[in-house]
Automatic annotation (TrEMBL):
Protein name: Uncharacterized protein
């Protein structure tokens, strides 16, 4: 789904201060999944962010836009 998969884009997603709240929310949601048992090590968290955060963030934005549209039409 996420159309940019370069090292530069991943770097921005991992290090942009404005996205910190979203990264935390993403990690907390991942920790709640039964397969992770909430014992994620820092390396595991980095891998999750590298592999899945961009898609998660895109879906979150799209869902927010949909909700906004539904409320205002």
């Amino acid at each position: 789904m996420y159309m940019f998969d370069s090292a530069a884009h991943r770097y921005v997603l991992r290090h942009c201060d404005e996205l910190e709240q979203f990264r935390r929310e993403f990690v907390e949601q991942e920790k709640m999944k039964p397969c992770h048992l909430s014992n994620l090590m820092p390396d595991d968290i980095e891998k999750l962010i590298n592999r899945h955060f961009a898609d998660w963030l895109e879906q979150k934005v799209l869902f927010s836009m949909f909700q906004f549209y539904e409320l205002h039409t």
